[in-house]
Amino acid sequence: MVAERLLIKNLKQGKEDAYRQLVEEYGNKLFKTCCLILKDREEAEDVVQETFIRVFNKIDTFKEMSGLYTWIYAIALNLSRDRMRMKQDTLELRDELIGSDNLEAQVESSIDRELLRKEIFEMNSIYREVLVLFYFEEFSIKEISNLLNEKEGTIKSKLSRGRNILRESLLKGGR
């Protein structure tokens, strides 16, 4: 927390090293998440780049009421949603984009990971966002609620419904 406060202070002071540190610390994580949401590597790269530009331009507006990454992620999520509204193409991710993830052990051991990715990508974006935030980004229900400006009960409902849709689809062997 102390390191994050120092980073924020240095960003607000316009220190070049702080910008470099920010990109190094959060760039890959943000990129992987944007890939999962957008289903397109190039779109994800564009969104991540645009996100950091906005962060650099708007760092003075950051009120520190949430964590820095939560604020950055909210910017990326809004930009991703804008992109998804404009373009609904689906492209497969290459295996190296996913890296390691934190899905429940039973799901991981019982299904083909490629099928899991395919099914998550084909889900309605409302459920896909919540599943990605919860399992891949490891945000809590409360953090997701704050990030998406929705009640915790709504997030729990979407998470439950998303799990059920995913489970049913996987049991059927994919769509």
Provide structural commentary:
The chain is mostly helical. It has ten helices and no strands. About 13% of the residues have low confidence.
TL;DR of this structure?
The chain has 175 residues and is an all-alpha fold. It is built from 10 helices and no strands.
Which helices and strands occur, and which strands form pairs?
Elements: H1 2-12, H2 16-38, H3 41-58, H4 68-86, H5 95-98, H6 105-110, H7 113-122, H8 125-136, H9 141-148, H10 152-171
Main beta sheet: strand number and arrangement? none
Low-confidence stretches: 88-104, 106-111
Give average pLDDT, whole number.
79
User: How does the overall form come out from the CA principal axes?
Assistant: globular
Question: Strand share of the residues?
Answer: under 5%
Helix/sheet category: mainly alpha
Helix and strand run: HHHHHHHHHH
Question: Span from first to last CA?
Answer: 44 Å
Helix content: over 70%
Total number of beta strands:
0
Q: What's the tally of helices?
A: 10
Q: C-alpha Rg, in Å?
A: 17 Å
